[in-house]
Amino acid sequence: MIVLWIVLAVVVILVVWLVFAYNKLVRLRNEAEQGYSSIDIQLKRRADLIPNLVETVKAYATHERGVFEDVAAARSKMLSADSVGEAAGAERQMRGALGRLFAVAEAYPELRASENFRALQEELSDTEDKIAAARRYYNNVVQRYNTSQQTFPTNLMAGALGFRPREFFELDDEGDRAPVAVDLSKP
Amino acid sequence: MTLQEQIRANRRRTAVVFLGFAILILAFVAIIGGAYSPGLAGVLGIFMIGYGIISYYASGRIIAAAAHAKPVTKQDQPRVYRILENVAIAAGLPKTPDLYLIDDSSPNAFAAGRDPKHAYVAVTTGLLALMDDREVEGVLAHEVGHIRNRDVKLMSIAAVLVGAIALAADMLMRITIWGGDSDDNSLGWIGVAAGLLAAVLAPIGASMLQMSLSRRREYLADAAAVEFTGDAEGLALALAALRDDHQPLKHVTRATAHLYIESPLRDHKGLRSSLGGMFDTHPPLEDRIAKLEEIGGFTLPAATPAPQAP
Fold this sequence. Notes:
The structure holds 2 protein chains of 2 kinds. Chain A is an all-alpha fold. Chain A contains 7 helices and no strands. Residues 174-187 of chain A have low confidence and may be disordered. Chain A has helices at 2-60, 65-80, 84-105, 109-113, 115-150, 155-158, 173-177. Chain A is rod-shaped, with a radius of gyration of 24 Å. By secondary structure, chain B is an alpha+beta fold. Chain B has a 4-stranded mixed beta sheet with strand order 1-2-4-3, with helices on both faces. Chain B has helices spanning 3-35, 38-67, 78-91, 125-130, 133-148, 151-179, 188-229, 232-243, 271-274, 285-296; strands spanning 69-72, 98-102, 109-115, 118-124. In chain B, strand 3 (109-115) and strand 4 (118-124) form a beta hairpin. Chain A binds chain B through residues 24, 31, 34-35, 38, 42, 126, 129-130, 132-134, 136-137, 140-141, and chain B through 4, 82, 85-87, 89-92, 227-228, 230.
């Protein structure tokens, strides 16, 4: 009889733990989803700014086709990305392309003086800050999500219940934050 | 303590604060009713319950009015608003808190409201004039940390209720001294004694409540700020700037003192300094800076000495 009670108690404890651990994982997974969609919103917002930016630069710098093509390629890659890794890759490419675009713009004083260009530049740098903020939130949540999946005892059930570690949104900052030197821009 | 535990603890404490407030109202009403008139007691009781309900929903607005904080738009303050937006995104808040401005040359800031969807961050014009973007970001991140940690509801409600307790105690003191001499009042001396006792004890209780609320919370909000910005040094520089500034804030009372990023009463002389650190609502800025230095692995230059009082 007493053995039965002990078994019962153990089962109850296990079920309660399972419910709590499961709910925690679900909550973190939702937070990670939400974090990713907030990155996505900012990436889209920037993608919307780009045609306008390219048109503005084109009006002054007619001979820089290569740069415009790079930016357009990065933009379409970003819009079609459907995984964290692809989006991060597109983002890296976009940073490089925009870096080159602004390097080109440096060589055109009338362009730099144009109010429209300056407004776009400001908007763009704001979006970039917001992407960085959204990325920080997403990576924080993903880290918590992955850690709780991998630590004992949650790791015993996380995989079986269909929780998988999520990918970080990584940009290896040093490389793409550095200004990109481009020959085209030299007069 | 994880974030979830912190949020749960905050919810529990909000319930305790309301319960404590309810008990205080009951005691207050009972004293008035016993010593003076049951009719007056009933009216006061209803008034206090109404006050409690209002304070739950409108604490943010009441505090804004008391602190002379006015809402501003993105067009008015694009620089600050953008920083606030970024910090809110990094904190994963459902929306950017509203931005309020206090026209005061003393640098300070606070957050209030009922939940992350109904919250605002208020900063003084003095803070914006004193600090660069990086420091402002640290301050806003600290305030957003309070919002994310669900501190604001508890702290806002505490502010409004502490204000109410002070008011009630004041009222009780007046009635006790000026109104208790009629002959048909058999319980006179008990009423006077109880009234005086309550009038003295209530504000002390309220202070202890405030104190227990805020000290630990400030460290937690500092840690949250670093999580959002990844820049412990920015916040430490901001705190150092607050430390080195000694202008007292104009519109501040004991009731709202615990809301601010640093104690607004620090430079007010009088009661606070005579009690030493016992009723401080905030941990010393030095300790907070030291913790940030530990997290970030840097060292700020030492404090400039405070101006000596003549």
